[in-house]
Amino acid sequence: MPSWDLERSAMAQGCGAVCGCDEAGVGPLAGRVYAAAVILPEGVELPYLNDSKQVTKKRREMLFDQIKEQAVAWAVAWVEPKEIDEIDILNSRIKAMQLAIDALTPKADYALIDGNRDHGNRCAITAPHQLIVKGDSLSVSIAAASILAKVSRDRYMEEMAALYPQYEFERHKGYPTKRHYELLREFGPCPIHRRTFLKKL
After folding, report:
1. Positions of E strands within the chain
2. How far apart are alpha carbons 129 and 118 in whole angstroms?
3. Who contacts 16 (Cβ-Cβ below 8 Å, separation ≥6)?
4. Whole-angstrom Cα distance, residue 168 to residue 188?
5. Cα distance between the two ends of the chain
6. Residue 189: enclosing H or E segment and its boundaries?
7. Per-residue b/e over 128-153, b at no fewer than 16 CB within 10 Å?
8. Residue 74: which of 21, 10, 114, 9 has the closest Cα?
């Protein structure tokens, strides 16, 4: 379960405000990639908080509201599918995370970043930071960011499902499921499909 250890370690080294940052939507064939950054009040307890993939939809929705209410600062950012095709998913993921960190008010002194990559060939995390592999299961701030990013992206994909009902985005959220591929072969890609991801068609 996520703990305060990483945040407290950064604070002990003089960092006043520490944010967690995570993204959602790297693997899908369609839609934006989202990222969120969150600064939590030290020691705050959020029941059921964990890596968003380990939390039920109902609890994610509940946590989404609690995190926004209790956070010192939070921000959500994204990169559109067209730009993902232009700069690739690694650069897009990193750009979205830095945009989220930049949007925090008050600003973070230090960022805990989920994953093991902090730059591509075009974008980089420029904020002072530390990379944490499986950070969403280790850090409360990263876990909170994972919830905000995941719920924000799921809600966006539900809006896209209303615009493009033939693809059933509400079911698979754009991920490469068997059903999604069947629908892609039947209808072809729509404006939110990532063309560079559709090699198998």
Report:
1. 18-24, 33-39, 73-79, 110-114, 129-132
2. 9
3. 109
4. 13
5. 39
6. none
7. ebbebeebbbbbbbbbbbbbbbbbbb
8. 21
Q: 142: helix, coil or strand?
A: helix
Contact call for residues 173 and 153 (beta carbons, < 8 A): yes
80: left (phi over 0), alpha (psi -120 to 50) or beta: beta
Overall average pLDDT of the 159-164 stretch: 98
Whether the predicted model's global pTM rises above the 0.70 cut:
yes
- Tell me the pLDDT band of 201, cut-offs 50, 70 and 90: confident
Cα 129 to Cα 110: distance, rounded to the nearest angstrom:
5
- Report pLDDT for 38: 98
Do residues 173 and 154 make contact, with C-beta atoms less than 8 angstroms apart? yes
From the CB of residue 112, how many other CB atoms can be counted at a distance below 10 Å? 26
CATH 3.30.420.10 fits 5-153, yes or no: yes
